[in-house]
## 1
Amino acid sequence: MKRKKQKIFNIALAVIMLIMSLFFLFPVIWMLANSFKPDAAITADMNSAMAFVPPAPGKGFFDNYKAILFDTSFIRYMLNTLFYAAIMIVSGIIVNGLAGYALAKIKFPFRDRWLAVIMMLMVIPAETIITINFMFVSKMGLLNTVFGYVLPMIVNPFNIFLFRQVFVSLPDDVWEAAQLDHCNPVKYFFTMVLPMSKTVVATVSVFTFLNVWNDYLWPSLVFTSSNLLTAQIGLNSITSNDNTTMGQTLAVITLITIPVIIIYSLFSKQIVEGVISTGSKEG
Amino acid sequence: MKNKSNSILGMAFFGPALVLMTIFLFIPMILTLIYSFTDYFALNPKLTHFVWFENFSAIFKDDLFTTAFGNTVKFVLIIVPLQTLGALGLALLINRVTVCKRYFKVAFFIPVVMSLAVVSNLWMQIYSPEGILNTMLSNFGVEPQPFIYGASQALPSIAFMSVWQGVGYQMIIFLGGLQAINPALYEAAEMDHASSWSRFKDITLPELKPLCVFVFITVTIGAFRMIVQPMVMTGGGPSHSTYTIVYDIYETGTVNWEIGLASAMAIVFTVFVVILTIIQTVLTKDKEDRHEKKKAKDI
C-alpha cells in the first residue's frame, strides 16, 4: 500500500517537473523551431502552438542558415575564434603549467609567498584592470592584433593554482631518477609531467576554450577591424544589421552555440566535476 | 650546489608566468590605485596631477555613478535570492525524482551552455513588443508589456533573464553537495521516524550550509559584475535604468578616457568584491573548524 502511494508520488513529481522544464526551456524551443522559418511564418505562428513546432522539412528549410553561413562573415568569425582558442590553450598550458610545476615541486626562493600571491590574485575581478590593460595594449600599438588580444589573457592565476594542486601529488622519485639520468628538466616536464596529468590538462583546455568562445568584453575592446572579430562580437554586428531577419538572428545564435554543446557533451564529466570541485573546494 | 640549481630552475619555470603577471596584472593594479588619486586624462596626460581623494568624492556626488551603483544593488537584490533559492529548489527536486533524472539535469543546465551575448540576443526577441512572451501573455488577458524597452521594467527583465541563464550552474553545485551527504544520517532519521521536513531542516540544510554560503557569495559577486547583458540589450537604458558600475567604469575609462575617475570607480568596485570574498572565507572557515572540533569530540 505504502509502496503504491510512493510510486504515484514519484510519477506525479516527474510530470510536474516535466511541465516545469518545458516552461523553463520555452525560449530555447522557440529559438530552434523558428530558426527554420521565414519571418512571415514566425509572425503568423506566434499566436498558436505552431510557434514551438519547426516547419516540415522542404524547400527553403535551411534558408536562414544558408544566409548566415554564405552571405555574412560568420564562418570567418568562427575560424578566428577557434584560432585564438588554440593559441590560448597551448600557451596557457605551457605558461601556467610550468609555473604550477615550479610552485609544486621545485624549491626556489619565496616559493610559498608566490603561492599566496597567486591565491590573492584569484580574488581580483578582471573588470578592475580592464581599462588600464586596454590603455596598455593600445599604447603598445597592439589593438586589432592577435597579440593584443591573447597576451594579457595567457597567465591565469586560477589555472596555475589548479596545475599546482595536481602536480603536488605526483611522485618525487620519478623526478629524482630523471635528474640522475641528466634528463633536461623542460623535456621532462613535456614528456613526463604533462602526460601523467592528462585530466588537469583536459580540464584547463576545456575551460580555456569556453572562456575564449564566450568572452565578450575584452575582444570587443581589442578588435574593431571586422576580419579579426570573434564569434560573439561578430554575432552582434550581424544581428544589429538591419538586413538581418528575425529567423536569421535565431539561426546565427543557434549556430554559435553548437560548438559549445559539442564540447559539453564530449567533456561533460570533466566539466561537472570541475563545477562541483570549485564548489566543494571553497565551500 | 643543488639549492642553487633549483633556484635557477624554479625561476626559469616560474619566469614566463611572472613576466606576464607583472605586465598585465601587478602593474595595472598598482597603476589603477595610483591613477585613482590623479586626474589622469589619457588624451592629455601631460596635465596630470594628484587630486588625492577628490575622485572618490566626485563619483559619489555624480548622478550617473550613484544611479549605476543603485542599479547594481537592485540587480544583486533580485538575482541573488531567486538564483540561490531556485538552484537549491531544483537540486532538491532532481535529487528526489526517480524518473528521467538525467533529462532534468540537462534541461535546466542548457541555458548555462549559451553565452551571454547569445542569451541577450535571444531574449531581445522574446521580450520584443510583438514577441512571443507578449503574445503568450495576451492569451491570459495581459496588456502588452514594454519589458526591456520600458524604464521601470528593463532592470527586472534583465535580472530575470540572468537568473534563467545562471540557475543551472548552481543547481549542479548543490546536486554535488546533496550526493555527498552521508546516507547513514538519513537512515538514522528514518529509525527515529523523523518527518521529511525535520529531515530536511536537521540534516540536509546544515550539511549544505557551507555550499549555500559559497553559492550565495559567488552569485552576489557575479551580479555585481553585470555589464554584458545591458550592453547588448539596452545600452544601459532606457534613461540609464540598466546602467551598472562596471558599465560606468568601461565607458569612463575606454570611451571618455578619464582614467583617473575610472580607476577610482574600479577601486570602489574591487573593495566590494574583496569584502564579499573575505566574508565568504570567514563564514566557511568557521564552519570547517567547528566541523573538525565536532569530529574530534566524537572520537
## 2
Amino acid sequence: MGSFDLLMQGFENAFTPTNLLYACIGVLLGTAVGVLPGIGPAMTLALLLPITYSVEPASALIMFAGIYYGGMYGGSTTSILLNTPGESSSVVTAIEGNKMAKAGRAAQALATAAIGSFVAGTIGTLLLVLFAPKLATEVVKLGAPSYFALLLLALFAVTAVLGTSRLRGFTALFIGLAIGLVGTSTGQPRLTFGSPLLADGIDIVVVAVAIFAIGEALWVASHLRRRPLDIIPVGQPWMSRDDWGRSWKPWLRGTAFGFPFGALPAGGAELPTFLSYITERKLAKNPEEFGHGAIEGVAGPEAANNASAAGTLVPLLAMGLPTTATAAVILLAFQSYGIETGPGLFDSQPLLVWTLLASLFIGNTLLLVLNLPLAPVWAKLLQIPRPYLYAGILFFASLGAYSVNFQWFDLLILLVIGLLGLAMRRFGLPVLPLIIGVILGPRLEAQLTEALAISSGKVSTLWSEPVAVIVYVIIAGALLFIMGNGVRTLLRNNNQKKKVLA
Amino acid sequence: MSVVVAYSADVYGKAALAYGATEASRRDEKLIVVNDTKGDAYVDKRLAADAEIEALRAELSRLDVETEIHQDVVRDVAEAVLQVSAESSASLIVVGVRPRSPVGKLLLGSVAQRIILDATCPVLAVKPDGSGV
C-alpha cells in the first residue's frame, strides 16, 4: 500500500468525532500554554502523560501533537503584544513583532504570524510525510553499531550545538545519563544504594514532570513579584494586500530554514528562526525599516519555528530520536503505551503513525481558524495571577507522579529532582540534555550491549559499518571545530591580558 | 495633610481621581495618587501604562496643589494605600467602587472594601457617572 493510501486511512481515523475532539483540545491547550511565558508544551505534555493510562494511543498522540503545534502559534502572540517571548522559539519574533504592535500594526503582525505558521506547518508536515517513511526504511537496515553511533551523535549534537556553554550542557547531559543508570536492568544493581524502591529505576515520567513542572514552578515562585508589562490592545488580526505581498516570500524562506534544522539531531527552533531573521533583513527592499517593525521579520521566523516543529518529528518517528524537549516527552508517551519507538515504528504501527500525521494537517488548520479570531481572548490569559497557575501545576505534577506507581517514594523523587531542576535554572544549566540523556542513555547502552554480544566482545565492531564510521567522523569534526574555537578564544584572551599587563 | 486616591486604570479609577483632584484643590492639600500592583500576573490591566502615567502627570501639573504618583509592586494593594495614607497623614482617601458578581465576591477580595473598613480617616467611595451601580 502506498503512502497516499495510508495517509487517507489516517485521515479517516483522525476524523472520527473522538479524535477530532482530542485534536481541538490539543490545539486550544497548546495555544494557551504557548501564550503563557514559562509554561511550555514540554511541561504541559509532561503533566498530561498520566492520561496515557486511560486514553487510546491515537487520541492521546493527536492531542499531544496539537499541543506541540499550538505552542508554536501561541508563543508569537505574547512576543508581539508583550515583547516577552511566550516560547524560546518566538524570541526572534519579538524583535520586529513588538515594534509593529507599538506602531499600531499588531493586527497585521498577528495575522502574518498565524498565516505564516499555517503555511509553514502544512508544507513542513507534507515534507514530513514524504521523508519520514523513506528515512525509516533506510534506518531500519542499519545494525546495532550504526544505531549506537547515531544515538551518540544525537546526544552530542543536542548538548554541544545548542546553548552557550558546552561545560553546562555536558554537565546536564551526564546528570541525565546518571539518572538513567539507576536500577537493575542489567542484572547488576547500579546506583540503587541498596534500596529496593530504586531497583526498578527512576521512572522517566517522574523525571520529566519534576524537571519541567516542579523545577519551573519553584523557579517562578522564587521571583514571583515583578512589575507587570504593558500589553498592547489588539482587535481582529487582518492583513492588507501589501502585507500579503511582503509576507509570502519570507514564509517560504522561513519554511526552508526551519524544516531541515528541525530534522537534524541538533534541531530546535532557535537557530533557524534567527537565521531566517538575518536573511530577511539582508533581502529586504528597505532594510532601514528593520528595527522599526518590518513585517518580513515576523513572517520569516514564525514560519521557521512551525516548520522546525514538523521537522523535529522526522527523526522522532523515523528513528526514535528526540531533538527537542517536547519531542522527548512525546517519545515518553509512545513508550508508556509500550510502543517500540525507532525505525520499525512505521511498519509495526502504521495506522497510529499515519493517523498522527493526518491529525497534524487537521490541527494546523484548526489552529489557523482558532487563532485569527481568538487572538484578543488569548491575550486575556496573561491576566491570570501566577500563584493560581502554578498551584494548579504543582497539584497536577504531584498527582501525575503519584499515579505512575501509586507509591509515596515517587513523590520524594519528584521533589528531589524538582529541586535539581530549580538549581539547574538558577545556574543556567540547560534541561534539554538532561532529559535526552535520561531517555537515550538506557537505549545507548542496549545498542552497545547488542553490538558487542553479536561480535562476541570485539570492540572493533563499533566501527565496522560505513554509516557508523561517517557518524564518528562527523562527531570528531564537530569536536575539533569546537576545540579549535575554544583554543582560539583562549589565545586571544591571553594576548589581550599580555597587552593589558604590558 | 493630604488626599490619597486609590487609582486603577479604568473608569472607576478615573472617577476617583476626578473627585480626589477637586477635593485636594478645595482643601488645599497635597494630592497623592496610588496605582500599585501585586505584580503576580504578567499583565495587570489596572496598572496604568507608562504613556498613561505621563498624560496623568501633565494633567495633574495644572492643579494648584502639590501632586505625587506612586506605582509600586506590593504584597497587598489595600495595605499599601493605607500605609501611604498613614505616612502622609491623609485627611481623606478616595476609592472607586465597582460592581461585583456573587461569584466574584466569593473568590476575590475587594481592595475598596478593605480600604473603607480599615482606614483611620474618612473614605469617599466614588462611582463613575451614569454607571448605575
